[in-house]
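Just wondering, does anyone understand what follows?

——
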Amino acid sequence: MKTAFIGLGVMGYPMAGHLVKGGHEVTVYNRTTAKAQKWADEHGGSYAETPAEAAKGADVVCLCVGNDDDVRSVTFGDDGVLAGMSAGAVLVDHTTASAVVAREVSAKADELGIGFIDAPVSGGQAGAENGALTVMIGGEQTVYEKAVPVIDCYARMHQLLGSVGSGQLAKMVNQICIAGLVQGLSEGIAFGMRAGLDMKATIEVLSKGAAGSWQMDNRYETMIDDKFEHGFAVDWMRKDLGIALEESKSNGARLPVTALVDQFYADVQEDGGNRWDTSSLVTRIR
């Protein structure tokens, strides 16, 4: 399939590479053109100067940018992807953004006869590099099916969960769950270290029981060793939790732990940990 990929950050760069490996014809766009050139040299695809140019003639266009405003900037206007796409094509937004912007983009795409699905991902940089992401999807079944050959290239799991916006809502659930898990793991590790336990040996045992989780398996060693220059940044997590907390005002959900952990992350930011991994929560209580 002829595809375009917009946004070559830590997630988008390897995701676009997997499309080439999957046999698709790929044109990329990135705000920093030098990075798009580097990607094209490395993977053998091509790059464009604007999102519209990248999207021209594509069967499927993927976005993976920063936030709601970034989605709007690369989607709407004369240089946006919708200006370059043709009726019958599909736009896949992998950005973690709000359900509101997903519905905005979907409405405009529908006017143009373009399919749209919101499809935020989970699995982090490692998942993107290994082609093992989990993708939560909102949209119509027929549109989703058109995008499956593309999504299959970098996902180990993807599922349609409902109408447009459902993917973003599911990603909010994901981040809400992670916030509580990481705080609990932080408290457990801090407690165990103060109690004089060999925490690496302790976690190796606990991870095989009811307390086990992805966060425990993948973050306990670096949390104990005080290493956080990797993974999913605190700034990004606060952005995501902010989206969830805002949505909760609309649907009436109570998120007391999420709100508390969000403020704990603000403390980490004040200590200079903006780009630290989310597991750096442990630093504020150790």
About this structure: The chain has two domains: 2-163, 168-284.
